[in-house]
Amino acid sequence: MKWKEAQKERKLKLYKDAKKHPRYKGKVKNDGGYILIYSANHPYKDKHNRVREHRLVMEKHLGRYLKPEEVVHHLDGIKDNNRIGNLKLFKNHSEHRKWE
Ligand SMILES: [Zn+2]
Prior knowledge:
This protein is an alpha+beta fold. It has helices at 3-14, 53-62, 93-99, and strands spanning 28-29, 35-38, 50-52, 71-74, 87-90.
């Protein structure tokens, strides 16, 4: 097999789960248990154009983008329970720590 074909096959294997593909445009869960949403136009997107869903939910609620230092906490400790009633906003990490 040619090198190029072998590379292609290796990639296919790696991305057999389409959600693992860096250009996948749907909902994915990261290793930390947070849900990520494809948001190419977001100012604080990650390198794969994704933003954590709980931050998007809080932004929608507030009608503005969150500052990078702001922290969105899950009241029930469940990182994929992103209903607005389960989320609490803190100004920064030290405020978050004080509360916990
Ligand atoms: Zn917290």
